[in-house]
From TrEMBL:
Annotated stretches, region: Disordered: 18-39
InterPro entries reported in the protein's UniProt record: Gemin2/Brr1
Signal peptide range: none
Name of the protein this chain belongs to: Protein Gemin2
Domain of life: Eukaryota
Membrane-spanning intervals of the chain: none
Organism: Bactrocera dorsalis
Pfam family, one: SIP1
Family: Belongs to the gemin-2 family.
Length: 313
């Protein structure tokens, strides 16, 4: 008679036998894989046979088929050095490029070293200019409210969205009348200020190049540019030939919606820096041409809260 103990013993023996068979098969598979059996051979077989370049191989001859192309690749790989070193070019320093780099090397560098031999504006002049600017802005705000009540179409803008050349031509040929500039959105005004900043920079660059071409000695740095009374006046003249640029800058400043974004503050600060440098290049005999520069430095400092520029006016 078979007891319960005998049945459990038989079941346990069968389980051990199956386990031994499984382990034996597993070891056989692993041994086959390690010792070069079919599994490793199947997955590591070479897909394409690449022939080694023979003694008659000419690397200058273009490959005619895929086999020759692979042979060329193998040849180039074997002949390519592991490390390549390129000698620096010992070229002569370009004086013009060096002067421009000196002039624009650090926009954040303090501008106190730039001398200005002209007469700085009086307190009465500065107070009047700030008061007049704020009054103009208040009139523009009231005019915008009135146009909004009358449902005036302010969606129309000049077709000059992102073309600086077209913008330059447009501003040069058209005064900043309110009927035109009030149609500009805030983004368009911000973009116009960026263009004006670029145009001022171009004018400053022309000043540097003009001074280089008219001198035989070393190009003076920005810090000493205002100390040379014999230096030619700035080519960028906001009181005469380039007066249109100054009027558009003033108009864009009066029409800006307050508050403005940090990026716009950065653009205004760049404009102030350029004005300070251009003013510093004026000789003492041309102090009258510094009035527009003084005005824009003052407005950016006082009307737009960039008070660190107030010491320059």
């Amino acid at each position: 008679m078979t007891t319960k103990k005998d049945i459990l013993y038989e079941v346990d023996r069968n389980q051990k036998r199956k386990s031994n068979i499984y382990n034996t098969d597993k070891e056989t598979t692993e041994d086959t894989t390690v010792n070069g059996g079919s599994p490793m051979e199947t997955f590591q077989q070479q897909a394409l046979e690449i022939r080694e370049p023979g003694p008659n191989f000419d690397p200058s001859v273009a490959p005619k088929d895929g086999d020759e192309y692979l042979m060329h690749m193998l040849y180039e790989r074997k002949n390519c050095p592991a490390v390549m070193v390129r000698e620096p070019n010992k070229c002569k320093k370009n004086r013009t490029a060096a002067a421009l780099a000196e002039n624009f090397k650090d926009e954040d560098e303090p501008l106190k070293s730039i001398a200005y031999n002209g007469i700085l504006p009086t307190k009465e002049w500065k107070d009047y200019q700030i008061k007049d600017f704020e009054a103009t802005r208040e009139k523009i705000v009231l005019l915008r409210l009135e146009l909004h009540r009358q449902r005036y179409d302010q969606t129309l803008e000049p077709p000059l969205i992102a073309d600086p050349i077209a913008w330059h031509q447009f501003c040069h040929d058209n005064p900043p009348y309110l009927k035109t500039i009030l149609r500009f959105s805030q983004r368009t005004l911000e973009q116009l200020l960026e263009f004006i900043c670029d145009w001022l920079r171009v004018g400053e660059e022309k000043v540097v190049l003009e001074n280089i071409s008219s001198e035989d000695d070393i190009m003076p740095s920005t810090s000493s540019a205002g100390c040379n009374e014999n230096m030619k006046p700035a080519i960028l003249d906001l009181t005469d030939a380039n007066a249109w640029l100054g009027t558009w800058l003033y108009g864009a400043l009066t029409c800006l919606h307050i508050p403005i974004e940090p990026e716009v503050h950065s653009t205004l600060r760049d404009i102030a820096r350029v004005c300070i440098r251009l003013r510093g290049r004026l000789p003492a005999t041309a102090s009258g041409k510094a009035v527009p520069y003084n005005l824009f430095i003052l407005l950016i400092a006082k009307a737009f809260g960039q008070m660190d520029f107030a010491e320059f006016v």
